[in-house]
Amino acid sequence: NAGVTQTPKFQVLKTGQSMTLQCAQDMNHEYMSWYRQDPGMGLRLIHYSVGAGITDQGEVPNGYNVSRSTTEDFPLRLLLAAPSQTSVYFCASSKTPTENTEAFFGQGTRLTVV
Amino acid sequence: RKEVEQDPGPFNVPEGATVAFNCTYSNSASQSFFWYRQDCRKEPKLLMSVYSSGNEDGRFTAQLNRASQYISLLIRDSKLSDSATYLCVPREGGANNLFFGTGTRLTVIP
To answer: For the segment A12-30, what is each residue's pLDDT rounded down to a tens digit?
Structure first.
């Protein structure tokens, strides 16, 4: 059972570089989302998607782009990395956005921007 | 006001103790509630769902007070393996997104 898979697990970027964090799920879940977790802040929603072709902004979307071309994949792009984007990023999926179902998380990507 | 407020702790308790965490939420439209557990440097995992007034699963009991807008988690007979951060997560009815508290850190001491 793969569940939600995130790659890479660790990444160091220089300020101004761009990169894509990958997220894939094999549970045929409609709903996928990206969170960042910073010390003392809890998980904050960056972007989310309720299905293929549909994305929307969360609480802290600035500096990030997403797309959802397939049900399985939901990549997160950092356009111009900044030190403020140093964080742990979690991708999550759940069966549908409106049912009271469990959200499954990937193992996280630890990103450091220097 | 924050959407979700939790006492960050840490709570340090001996094995076998009973410990309770509280969580208050500000969105009165929240319909369902979850407790997630997060181990150090790991992803959150669902511990319990709370839909009506409460839920019990073994040593864990969650209670919901809608009038006062708080949820609690009670852990009985604490085990060393219960050491983790416990995240309170309300969800607005019909809405997509989860709102996470900052979590309460529990350390169970031998």
So the answer is: 999 999 999 999 999 999 9
What's the rounded Cα separation, in Å, for the pair B95 and B32?
Answer: 10
Mean pLDDT of chain B: 89
Q: Residues in chain B whose beta carbon is closer than 8 A to a beta carbon of chain A? A: 4, 8, 31-32, 34, 41-46, 49, 51, 87, 91, 94-98, 100-103
DSSP sequence for chain B = --SEEE----EEEETT--EEEEEEE--TTEEEEEEEEE-TTS-EEEEEEE-SSEEEETTEEEEEETTTTEEEEEE-S--GGG-EEEEEEEEETT-S-B-----EEEEEE-
